[in-house]
Amino acid sequence: MAMNLWPSCLTSCSQSSPCGGSEAAEIDPWASHEPYVAVNGYILRRAPEEERARLIGRVPDKHERGQHALSVMEQHLRANDWFVLTATRSPI
């Protein structure tokens, strides 16, 4: 599935950044929601009917795990402005 490329793209971009790639180690944990949130979005909104019927049983477990991952991310953002803390430049 194409959705699995997103964490790889983030890691690749961070490794080639002017900060020397130190963000890669910090980005990986934040991609942990991807297999739960994005995959459920695909199953529920984009999967062809036959594929959706085959995968629909995975949605409740992925939903619960996705909720947990998003909760961890929200907690982090309550105390920090960004997910990646080592950046020395403005992201804008």
Could you describe the 3D structure shown?
α1 (5-15) packs antiparallel against α2. Helix content is 65%, strand content 0%. With 92 residues, the protein is mostly helical. It is built from 5 helices and no strands. The chain is elongated and about 45 Å long. It has a domain at 30-78. The chain has helices at 5-15, 23-30, 34-46, 49-55, 59-79. The model is unreliable at 1-6 and 88-92 (pLDDT under 50).
How much is the average pLDDT?
A: 75
Strand proportion: under 5%
The Rg value, from CA coordinates, equals 16 Å
Order of helices and strands: HHHHH
Spatial separation of the terminal alpha carbons: 30 Å
SS-based class: mainly alpha
Uncertain segments are: 1-6, 88-92
Helix content: 55-70%
Given the structure, what is the number of helices? 5
- Quantity of strands, as a count: 0
Report the principal-axis shape: elongated
Largest sheet geometry = none
Search tags:
single chain; 92 residues; mainly alpha; 65% helix; disordered N terminus; disordered C terminus
Summarize the structure.
By secondary structure, the protein is mainly alpha-helical.
Q: Mind sketching the topology for me?
A:
Elements lengths: L4 H11 L7 H8 L3 H13 L2 H7 L3 H21 L13
Helix pairs in contact: 1-2, 3-5
